[in-house]
Amino acid sequence: MKALIQRVSQAQVMVGDECTGRIGAGMLLLLGVERNDDQAAADKLLSKVLGYRIFGDEDGKMNLNLPQSGGGLLVVSQFTLVADTRKGLRPGFSSGASPALGEQLYDYFLQQARERHPEVACGRFGADMQVSLTNNGPVTFLLES
């Protein structure tokens, strides 16, 4: 399981004309699920995401995690994160989870995130989404379970 996290001033995800999720300051998380992932991997990754210190303290140093910052979390499924790009000019997706497993673990991740963090918004699994954000920093990290 992979999460591309970005510290944002704001972010939102649209499906057609519908805004499915929006946050102010906080973290945008693009989530990729691999075929061997399970709930334990999701739990491990969520703990890492919520504990990762990417927000500035009173001295401007990245010492605060998401709960300490009081920011929102916007979770968007993105299967392309698990692509194999080592060879050729076309990504391979053989390591990606099946749509059923991907959706199951995405929903599980969201459920657990909502139990552990007060502000969680999301995209729609499998939908064609338009994601907009203002990356604050820019600060972007790739985390893996």
UniProtKB/TrEMBL annotation:
A Gly-cisPro motif from one monomer fits into the active site of the other monomer to allow specific chiral rejection of L-amino acids. Its EC number is 3.1.1.96, 3.1.1.-. The lineage of its organism: Bacteria, Pseudomonadati, Pseudomonadota, Gammaproteobacteria, Oceanospirillales. Belongs to the DTD family. It comes from Marinobacterium aestuarii. This is D-aminoacyl-tRNA deacylase. The keyword Membrane does not apply. It is found in: Cytoplasm. The keyword tRNA-binding applies. CDD domains: Dtyr_deacylase. An aminoacyl-tRNA editing enzyme that deacylates mischarged D-aminoacyl-tRNAs. Also deacylates mischarged glycyl-tRNA(Ala), protecting cells against glycine mischarging by AlaRS. Acts via tRNA-based rather than protein-based catalysis; rejects L-amino acids rather than detecting D-amino acids in the active site. By recycling D-aminoacyl-tRNA to D-amino acids and free tRNA molecules, this enzyme counteracts the toxicity associated with the formation of D-aminoacyl-tRNA entities in vivo and helps enforce protein L-homochirality. InterPro entries: Daa-tRNA_deacyls_DTD, DTD-like_sf.
